[in-house]
Every structure is written in structure tokens, then in C-alpha cells.
């Protein structure tokens, strides 16, 4: 079997793959209320059942662990396996789609659907790629297991349930980040900042309505300030790429100041908020503009602002460089907030680092360079993947250099040729990782 055989097989079976991908896309696998045998809701559990049926049809051994994670296995029941870990849960679709978000659509070679990039398309390309390798007669010298999670978007509570019963892979990757191989992921910390206001200040503003969630920059909020209706529109982007969006909260603060709607303490708050966050995505407005050579600049995104019982509650997401700590961020933030504000950590995900000289990472880098012709030097990322919670894996794809801020938005897309190139990269990588010398 040659690399040319792999390319030919992908081209010959492209339509079959897209038909199977459509089956998993149509499952609305957004987290819901826990149900019997469905800890993260019926949608994510249904996705596990569907993928198990597909994998059985391909001839692989399958299983579902603790009703939370499914797997498809090629090889013996071995504690030492190469793992590819992706997820089938998705964020809510929201409004503003051109077509049904849970129906795979193809417009001029571009695939659209919720999850087509994050992460159903890439992880299904791995599963289908293994089917093609099996059909081509390849016999891996190590067991391969494709692992399908169901709670990555809501905190990865599925992974402890998997590791409770199953061994971690000896090495592997998650196709849920970017290319080339990602040897380090920045730390993430979310803060709640509660700022007290006098009743006369708080009474000026109604609750702020709009879609405010930790995974994206808010794109529309509405509020009344001293009886004046105010609508602020922005542009949605992921919280790890705020520079690609326009934050409706900072737009709201700007409009309130320009129109002189707020007075006294509320006006002072909006002034602080605008000066701290408007177009200051790298912490410069807060005095925490940390940066290092390995992972670049700190990123900060305000994603929720709301009335609380005695003031205003602000939530922000921060990605900090690998050579800094959460304590560094917290100490800097304390100096930047309005006096009297209370700061509380509401989410923390420590960063992760691997040795970029690991020979298995070099295998991934070499395959990527050979298939794409692009530089395969390992990189770090601002994203958060299963690599933080599953030992011994790194992020590897699916997005190519220059592709950023696509997931979690309306009309989520992936170029069909890029998805096929994903499959080609992953098939070649798994061949190299599971040969006699791998």
C-alpha cells in the first residue's frame, strides 16, 4: 500500500463518506438535561449510538463507556493503543443560518453544518479513513482506537467517565485544533468580576438581554438605560479569537457614553469597561498584556455583563501564555478593576505542554509536510482541546494555517477538499504511528 493508494481510495469513496457524515450531522447533539443512560442529554447520547452503528458497519469492535464515550477499535484488547480522540457534541446552532444547521449542505465545494468542522467532520474522517485502510489490506502493528466524546463543548466531564474504566492511549491526537502538530495549549481562566453600585446607579439600567455565553463574543444585546432603549450589534467570533469579531458589549458601552445615557456611577463603570476592553484583546487595557516566544500574547474576552443584586456582574475569559501562571493573571487583574470589585475564578483549565522533539510528534510533522507541502514545525494554540484532559495526546488539525474563528458561528463551514486532505493526513499518520518501528 502506497500514499498514492490512500489518495485514490479517498477520491473513489468520497460520496460514501459524505453520506455517513450526514447521518451524524443530523443528530442535534447539544448538551441537555441528564437522563437515564444519557448523562449529557439525549442528543449527545444519540450521537454515540449512531456512530457505533456506523463503526460496526465498517467491521470494527465498538463500545460505549459509562454512557458518555463511544469507541471504535481496530486490533486486540491492548492497554497500549494509539488513540484518536474527538467529540460528537456541538454548541447550540443559534439563529441566522442560511440552511438547516443540522443538514449537511454543499455549496460550491464548501460544506456547511453545525459540527462539520467542530468536530464531527474531522473525527468521522478518521473513522472512515481507518475503514479505507482496512479495505486496502493494511494491518496495523499496534491497536488503534477512535474515541468519540459527548461533552467536550461543556467542560469535558465525559473524559473522567471514560478513564474510570479504560486506559489512556500511549500516544495519539485530537483532530480538534489546528495544523501542524500542537505541542502546547495555553492556560484558560474565566473570572467573575462583581462591582457594587449605589441603588441610584443600578436603577438606571434594566437587565441586559442577548446571547451571552462563554464560547463566543456576543453579537447583539439590548437594554434600557434611564428609560432609553439601546440596541448594540456586533459580530460573533470564538472567545479565543475576539479580534475577528465585534463585541456587542463594548458597542453598548460606547453608545451609552456617546449618547450620554448613563450618569454618575453607571457612567463611570461604562467608561472603565470601554477603556479596558474595546479593541484591547491582548490585555493591554488591564495591564496584563503578557507575551512569550512559545505561545504569543495573552487574550482577553468579556462575554457576559449583567445586573446583580447589588451592582454589575462581568464575566471574562482569558487565555494566558504558557510561561505565565493563573496567579500572574489574577494579581494583574486585581490592580485593574474598579476599587471595591470582587474577583472570583469561575473556570480554570491549566495549560498543557509536550516535548516538541518527541519522535512521534515528528512523525505527525513529517506526514503533514509531505501531504500538504507546508511547514510542519510544531506550534502552540489558544484553543482548549481534549489534550488537556486525556493523557498523552496532542491537537493535530483540522484547521489549516490562516483558518481561524469558524467554529461556534452561524454557517459553520469546512472546505470539502480540506476535509479530504484531513483524511489523507490522518490515514498516513496512523500508518506511520502503527508500523513496526512506530
* Unreliable residue stretches: none
Cα radius of gyration in angstroms: 23 Å
Strand content: 15-25%
What is the arithmetic mean of pLDDT? 95
Q: Any idea what the shape is? A: elongated
Structural class: alpha+beta
Major sheet, described briefly?
6 strands, mixed
Indicate the percent of residues in helices.
Answer: 25-40%
Task: From the structure above, extract its key features.
elongated, 11 helices, six-stranded mixed beta sheet, 25% strand, four-stranded antiparallel beta sheet, 438 residues, alpha+beta
Structure in words:
The chain is of the alpha+beta class and 438 residues long. Helices cover 30% and strands 25% of the residues. It is built from 11 helices and 23 strands. It has helices at 3-12, 14-25, 42-58, 120-135, 158-163, 199-202, 248-258, 264-277, 326-336, 359-372, 416-433; strands at 61-65, 69-74, 81-87, 105-107, 110-112, 143-149, 171-174, 177-178, 182-185, 187-196, 209-210, 220-225, 228-233, 291-292, 296-297, 299-307, 311-320, 342-349, 352-353, 379-381, 393-395, 398-399, 413-415. The strands form 7 sheets. Strands 1-2-6-3-7-21 form a 6-stranded mixed beta sheet. β16 (299-307) and β17 form a beta hairpin. α2 (14-25) crosses α4 and α10 runs antiparallel to α11 (416-433). The chain is elongated. The two termini are 17 Å apart. The mean pLDDT is 95.
Amino acid at each position: 500500500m502506497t500514499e498514492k493508494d490512500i489518495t485514490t481510495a479517498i477520491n473513489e469513496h468520497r460520496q460514501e463518506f459524505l453520506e455517513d457524515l450526514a447521518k451524524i450531522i443530523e443528530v442535534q447533539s447539544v448538551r441537555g438535561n441528564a437522563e437515564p443512560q444519557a448523562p449529557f442529554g439525549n442528543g449527545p447520547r444519540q450521537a454515540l449510538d449512531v456512530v457505533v452503528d456506523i463503526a460496526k458497519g465498517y467491521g470494527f469492535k465498538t463500545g460505549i463507556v459509562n454512557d458518555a464515550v463511544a469507541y471504535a477499535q481496530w486490533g486486540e484488547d491492548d492497554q497500549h493503543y494509539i488513540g484518536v480522540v474527538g467529540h460528537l457534541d456541538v454548541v447550540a446552532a443559534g439563529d441566522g443560518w442560511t440552511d438547516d444547521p443540522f443538514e449537511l449542505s454543499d455549496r460550491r465545494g464548501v460544506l456547511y453544518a453545525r459540527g462539520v468542522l467542530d468536530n464531527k467532520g474531522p473525527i468521522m474522517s478518521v473513522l472512515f479513513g481507518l475503514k479505507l485502510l482496512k479495505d486496502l489490506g493494511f494491518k496495523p502493528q499496534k491497536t488503534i482506537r477512535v474515541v468519540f466524546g459527548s461533552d467536550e463543548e461543556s467542560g469535558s466531564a465525559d473524559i473522567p467517565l471514560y478513564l474510570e474504566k479504560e486506559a489512556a492511549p500511549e500516544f495519539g491526537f485530537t483532530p480538534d485544533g489546528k495544523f501542524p502538530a500542537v505541542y502546547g495549549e495555553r492556560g484558560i481562566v474565566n473570572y467573575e468580576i462583581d462591582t457594587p453600585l449605589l441603588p441610584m446607579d443600578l436603577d438606571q439600567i434594566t437587565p441586559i438581554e442577548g446571547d451571552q455565553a462563554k464560547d463566543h463574543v456576543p453579537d447583539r444585546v439590548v437594554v434600557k438605560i434611564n428609560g432609553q432603549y439601546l440596541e448594540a450589534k456586533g459580530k460573533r467570533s470564538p472567545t479565543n479569537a475576539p479580534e475577528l469579531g465585534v463585541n456587542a458589549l463594548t458597542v453598548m458601552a460606547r453608545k451609552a457614553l456617546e449618547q450620554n445615557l448613563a450618569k454618575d456611577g453607571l457612567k463611570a463603570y461604562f467608561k472603565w469597561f470601554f477603556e479596558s476592553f474595546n479593541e484591547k484583546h491582548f490585555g493591554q487595557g488591564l495591564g496584563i498584556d503578557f507575551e512569550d516566544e512559545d505561545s504569543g500574547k495573552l487574550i482577553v474576552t468579556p462575554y457576559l455583563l449583567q445586573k446583580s443584586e447589588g451592582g454589575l456582574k462581568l464575566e471574562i475569559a482569558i487565555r494566558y501564555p504558557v510561561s505565565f501562571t493563573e496567579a500572574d493573571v489574577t494579581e494583574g487583574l486585581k490592580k485593574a478593576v474598579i476599587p471595591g470589585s470582587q474577583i472570583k475564578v469561575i473556570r480554570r483549565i491549566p495549560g498543557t505542554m509536550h516535548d516538541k522533539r518527541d519522535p512521534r510528534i515528528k512523525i505527525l510533522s513529517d506526514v503533514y509536510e509531505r501531504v500538504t507541502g507546508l511547514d510542519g514545525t510544531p506550534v502552540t494554540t489558544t484553543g482548549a482541546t481534549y489534550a488537556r484532559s486525556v493523557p498523552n495526546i496532542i491537537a493535530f488539525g483540522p484547521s489549516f494555517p490562516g483558518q481561524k474563528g469558524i467554529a461556534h458561528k452561524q454557517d459553520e463551514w469546512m472546505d470539502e477538499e480540506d476535509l479530504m486532505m484531513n483524511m489523507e493526513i490522518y490515514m498516513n499518520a496512523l500508518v506511520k504511528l502503527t508500523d513496526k518501528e512506530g
